[in-house]
Description:
Chain A has 716 residues and is of the alpha+beta class. Chain A has five domains: 8-94, 2-Layer Sandwich (Alpha-Beta Plaits); 98-229 and 348-404 and 659-713, no CATH class; 236-269 and 273-321, Calcium-transporting ATPase, cytoplasmic transduction domain A; 417-445 and 544-644, Rossmann fold, CATH 3.40.50.1000; 448-540, Calcium-transporting ATPase, cytoplasmic domain N, CATH 3.40.1110. Helices cover 50% and strands 16% of the residues of chain A. In chain A, helix 6 (156-167) crosses helix 7 (174-193), helix 8 runs parallel beside helix 24 and helix 16 (457-468) packs across helix 17. Helix content of chain B is 63%, strand content 0%. The radius of gyration of chain B is 21 Å and the shape is elongated.
Amino acid sequence: MTVSALPSQAQDEAGPGIAPQLAIDSRFTVPGIRCAGCIGKIERGLSQVPGVTRARVNFSAKRVAVSHAPALSDDVLIEELRKLGFEAQRAAENPLGRDDKETRSLLRALAVAGFGMMNIMLLSVSVWSGADGETRELFHWLSALIAIPVIAYSGRPFFASAAMALRYRRTNMDVPISIGIVLATGLSLWETATGGAHAYFDGAVMLLFFLLAGRALDATMRSRARSGIAALLGRMGRGAHVLDTDGTTQWTEADRLAPGMMMLVVAGESLAADGEIVEGSTTIDASMLTGESEPRPAVPGDLIHAGMINLGNPVRVRVTAAAQDTAIADIARLMDEAGQSRSRYVRVADRAARFYAPAVHSLAAFSFVGWMVAGAGVHQSLLVAVAVLIITCPCALGLAVPAAQVVASGALLRKGLLIKDGSALERLAEVDRAVFDKTGTLTLGEPRPVDLSALAPDECRTVLALAQSSRHPLSRGLVQALQAAGVEPAALGPVDETVGEGVRARVDGEVAALLRPDGAAEGLTVDFVHGARRVRIAFNDPQRPDVAETIAALGAMGVTSRILSGDRDGAVRALAEDLGLEGQGGMQPADKLDVLQRLAEAGHHTLMIGDGLNDGPALAGAHVSIAPGGASDVSQQAADAVFVGERLMPVALAVKVSRRTMAVVRQNFALAIGYNTLAVPLAILGVVTPLIAAVAMSLSSLIVVGNSLRLARAAG
Amino acid sequence: MNILGFLIPLALLMGLTGLGAFFWAMRSGQFEDLDGAANRILIDEDEEANGQ
């Protein structure tokens, strides 16, 4: 956690060792890809840039892979993307590699099991319909020939996990599964060799198929959410432009920065290390660290920290602490410790397995002993025991949890909430307290113009066009507000941006500009100048539109909310009073964690919603946590879910859907257990044939999946 | 019953072909961008010629 929580390595320009004629690949995350038009625009626009050989958009992952000449730097490409109208960040080197691999190997195992199941069924159907003698023997041998390699390949995920559990003297769902499959295969092989009537190859392979389907669903859900979150990552400094002694600058990754280096930080860039300003004065946005929304001035001699964003002039910063020694790293360590408590959470399926596995094993053993005592031979008793194992194998149980969770997370995804894994849904269902951060969580965390009514429609169009050509946070706020109002940008001549001053362009023969007000203006403001006219536009950080509704919806579900923020106490209390909540300001990361721990000791399950780095430890330490899409990397990694967009409602929706999901999971368990109470007595009595086992198994799985699909409209 | 000697290998072969095709599709990245493929069909190839 300590390592991954820090800005990790980014895709960089070509190293010196790469031959110049070779094209290199860079990947960027572009969260703004939303439609077919965007794909076309980006791919066409980028391939017209000299030096770019190929650009390919991955729509699902919101990513662009660009193959380009090494001379072309990533910054140039990001700038080109911005000109096309898309915010882009360097993507870390395939952060999803590991998850992807797991999903792929499960899918491969599922495909092999499916192939085996279909072919063995083909043979089994003729055996069930009365084939006997040599034909039955031949078919059994063929089944064995197909089943054994298939089981050896597709069963590995279960065998490996069961072996791991046994090594630590624990038991999980995979232990009865593995024992059942191995025993059934072994016994069927014996039956085949001795010309017996019943072979369970079909049952064993079918069991694997259904269970793998459950596992694959679980893994797909995780990787789907992760790729969504990875697309949102990258708002923190992953590196810096380091000034060499000869005056040239070089992009250096965050973990290679060392004290004493001189960083050049331009407007809009975030710091990758702690440092002291040596040259230039500017304003910085420290909301990531402190939660304070108002930018503060910084002059030479001031200490500024990694994660803060430079809003004004370019500054030179001498690194005082990098990598593990930064203020961020301290927060990361705090998070690391806070996260330990969550790893103790036991998932529903594993809790069920604790009771289920011993029950199944003793039932099978009991049937074996019972039949031995009743005078049946070892062979017949073993046959009955295997039938019990196959029938009780948690086929429906293995599907009960993942099927419901996948359907629910898909429904939430369409409403703008990404759940990282199934365990998050389980924990969300238990919450009875919600703790909100203020800046960036209850508010948008971005400056927006307070009032644009002073501008004429024509002027709005000019302002939008000017703002679009700048990357200053205030310009972005203007773009968001004007676009939301349906304003179309005006056509502009060449735009000239002076960092720390503003943007200028010619409109109708006169200079139009967005400028920083002269002198020390109060708060966040921008002047729009056109000819002799001058309009001052003020900005603030507005509340999300549906805060009150969301808190009311949470209240209706029995979840009490409160606000804990690092912002000034007065501002927090005012907001809390407005919303009718309890609120506390001036909280340090450790204070928030403290409050959460006290709540936990009082027996409450707390949902933490926060975005800043200062919320990181609280997000990691809470029972379950949600971060907004605009949050820092660290917070998004620590949180269990991420919601995108301006609305807060997905938070309340998540709690509602998770509770319905757990209700469906409980129904699924009841269905699966109900089926067992019917089938197990038959198995113990020895009347279950492979045919009955196969039919019962598929039916119960279908019922469980069908029941789970009802959740598709849970978020609607 | 001799027909079985032909049909069973045929069934297995067809199954294996399907399995092989799935493995190939997975390795060559056919499942990398499912939503993108659905959207790409909407891209108008002539857009560029129209000067948009």
